[in-house]
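Running co-folding for zinc ion.
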Amino acid sequence: MLAREVETRPWTEQLAVDDESYRTQLAYLFDRSPFYREKLAAAGFASDRAAGGLADVAQLPLTEKGEIRATCTPENAIGAHLCATPSEIVRIYSTSGTTGTPSYVPLTAGDLDNWVTASARSYAASGITSGQRIVSTYNAGPFVAGAALAAFDRIGLCHIPVGTGNTERLILAVERLRPEAVVLTPSYAAHLVEWAAERNVDLRDSSVERVLVAGEPGGGELAFRAKLEEGWGARITEAMGIGDIGVSLWGECEEQDGMHLGARGFVHVELIDPETGEALEMDDGATGELVLTHLQHRAAPLLRFRTRDHVQVRTSPCKCGRTSPRVRCIGRTDDMLIVRGVNVFPSAVREVVSAFAPDVSGHILVKPQTSGVMQEPPLPVSVELARGATADAGLAEAIRERLRNVLVVQTRVDLVPWGSLRRSEYKSKLVEH
Ligand SMILES: [Zn+2]
């Protein structure tokens, strides 16, 4: 554990510490943030005192990414939530917007340091330790993942960046430099298992003991994870962050029962009902959308930011000794479809289908018939067969039946030959409109 006294602090004590940070953060927002001064005043909170403490946070309005974007102007490309002066900003990352225009994420030196601290805790939870080697496959470019790479230095690892899109170089680095760990997206980790099998390369014979996956949901899906663990002969753990709030906020420990909040003390976590916006209790097993609040941020802090990540919470004690809550990402609310009133996450469809291995490859593609979220049943799902397997009406029917029982959704399952769905070296696309 990188910071044992912090990571094992009883959670109620953490909330007391966080309450103090939060009150200071609110005062800072009223002082420096034109966006929040106006937004909170419109909601009836004229001062930080009126807004109260962390116990009252659910009374405050939620922040949508679109609201921030709407305040960007030619004079202020970052947005009206910018609090710091230009001389205080040391880094500006971008997040890729669905509209094609990036949103900018500014950081002060202190913000960046906090991001790296949190990210280092999250990645260290996987069990990787100082002196070990890790091969990374991110071409971080403008994106916040660049800050996650700094976490490897903080842990004391020997970092071997090989970038994305060159599988030969990656495998060569694994063979010659014998790293204990690799970090990649779950899609790429799965692609490598197939790539190796086609070339009679056995990844299980490699030096890699830990495969750290991040960047998209999926690493926590049990059947998918089992397939990766078998292919790599290594332990899979996942990490997760969100560009606007922080990189690798969450990281899974060796117990593999959800990701701990590595960013404890820097970020406050809430759960809401994504449809009504109503706050939900963070009880063990509860599901909902994650809402995050910065506690010690300076450049452009966010309050009750809707992440669009749909998660299940775990608060039961973890054997590793870390006391923060854990989450497992079920999917992105943005990818969710509603089929006759039932919420369907494409990643959940993949999880159900993957359990049919070894008959299926684990690759799926959901093909909604109409644009938008609302869909009429049956929802078409292409399911790729395993290599050498042939289409079989009984298998399609069994998958359809399982999807109906587990996800309560009517589907039309089309079995497609091995290799016909697109592989990704970065993030998988599970839906094609
Ligand atoms: Zn743990």
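Result summary
Residues 11-32 form the longest helix (22 residues).
Residues 253, 255, 260, 318, 320, 322 surround zinc ion (CB under 6 Å).
Job closed.
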